[in-house]
């Protein structure tokens, strides 16, 4: 084992940004599920008391949105979907069996799809969240609109939470990925296997035959 | 704080059975005969007095409605409407407040266990100490009744004087009504009495007189005798066929199992995939990298 060759994937600011959003997400998901499922009402306890959870949840939501907005501006241009991504998406079954598909750049088709899903969900959650935010904003909206916002908020949250479960699993499944968001680096082998085009961009190497 | 002299039919956000061992409780109803109401507002005063409510003093804007709307401190208000029917002016006065639906939208929407309960006698009552101030009940209500207090961020509405009813008394508004326009008793008796009133009205030139007990919410435990039951909207916008909004039903109904399936599918997929396929590791030998 020689010293492993590493590529920086996320710098410290990006990692802090990610984990701040992740922390907000966990708090929001748990307190949100508490209000969604009667049997999970006890999860309001993560904010102390049920009423405190109702009070704090929307403020944490705004914090998550701001954090995510920063991420959006960092990453949106890496997430434009191209022909290679379509190929990836069509062959997702093969990918899941561990065979990489396509000349993937910084993100693969699945990651890009999830990115845009998160964008849509966050926007839906913020706008509907403002409409249902008592006591501050709700009184300015008609009740039929508040009803639609309540439904929208729940649907967007269900989609986002399901998406994040996939996001977390993908990070667990693809070994070496969590290191990218904790230490900020990935190995050459990781980059070459999962993101070959990004690997070439970062190292200038062809990737096909790399002398050790 | 639920009064245990009563069985509880339903309890908000509570998936398991509430106490219902006693089966002899009769459904009660308050009958408001709009046709004999003189709009004196004694019921408003009695309500405030019994329930110890003190709303802000408003200002006269040239209409009889005072206060202008329900609030956390005004659980019932008289709504006045002037209409012309058959070339005659009619002054339609309706005492507005919680209808105590058999299928309460507020209770369906409430996320806090036990913050809203429905007693076996039909009274729908808010248990303020469990209220978290989310206002979901306001969206759930088909009648636009619950009001969020700015003082404590809890929601209030008419209790049908549950505390009086539980000890065998009639609600304060009923007790005080000087014309007998508000009556209280078993729902059966009130329906029968309303039938007599409707017959009388029909014989006196109101062919469309009728009882307002909307089936869309399973019937209500506050009912109106109306001279124009075919057009309840004349009475300051009383809804013709109120139901819990389909949006609320979807949110509180179908979405829950769908969400559970979604979460379970995502989680199970990950678990089974990891067990079945195993981790995805970069190859030690970089040269094996071929798509």
Automatic annotation (TrEMBL), chain A:
One Pfam family, short name: Ni_hydr_CYTB
GO molecular function: electron transfer activity; formate dehydrogenase (NAD+) activity; formate dehydrogenase (quinone) activity; metal ion binding
Family: Belongs to the formate dehydrogenase gamma subunit family.
Protein's name according to its UniProt entry: Formate dehydrogenase subunit gamma
Cofactor(s) demanded: heme
Transmembrane segments: 20-43, 55-73, 114-133, 145-172
Membrane topology term: Multi-pass membrane protein
Keywords: Cell membrane, Electron transport, Heme, Iron, Membrane, Metal-binding, Transmembrane, Transmembrane helix, Transport
Domain Cytochrome b561 bacterial/Ni-hydrogenase: 9-184
UniProtKB/TrEMBL annotation, chain B:
Superkingdom of the source species: Bacteria
GO molecular function: 4 iron, 4 sulfur cluster binding; metal ion binding
GO CC entries: plasma membrane
Residues at which [4Fe-4S] cluster 4 binds: 110, 131, 134, 137
Subcellular location: Cell membrane
InterPro entries: 4Fe4S_Fe-S-bd (IPR017896), 4Fe4S_Fe_S_CS (IPR017900), FDH_Electron_Transfer_Unit (IPR051555), Formate_DH_bsu_Proteobacteria (IPR006470), Formate_DH_C_sf (IPR038384), Formate_DH_Fe-S_su (IPR014603), Formate_DH_TM (IPR015246)
Alphabetized UniProt keyword annotations: 4Fe-4S, Cell membrane, Electron transport, Iron, Iron-sulfur, Membrane, Metal-binding, Repeat, Transmembrane, Transport
Predominant localisation class: membrane
Region (Disordered): 1-20
Positions of [4Fe-4S] cluster 3 binding: 98, 101, 106, 141
Annotated [4Fe-4S] cluster 1 binding sites: 37, 40, 43, 177
GO biological process: cellular respiration; formate oxidation
PANTHER family, A to Z: FORMATE DEHYDROGENASE, NITRATE-INDUCIBLE, IRON-SULFUR SUBUNIT (PTHR43545)
Protein name in the entry: Formate dehydrogenase (Quinone-dependent) iron-sulfur subunit
Organism of derivation: Pseudogulbenkiania subflava DSM 22618
Lineage summary: Bacteria, Pseudomonadati, Pseudomonadota, Betaproteobacteria, Neisseriales
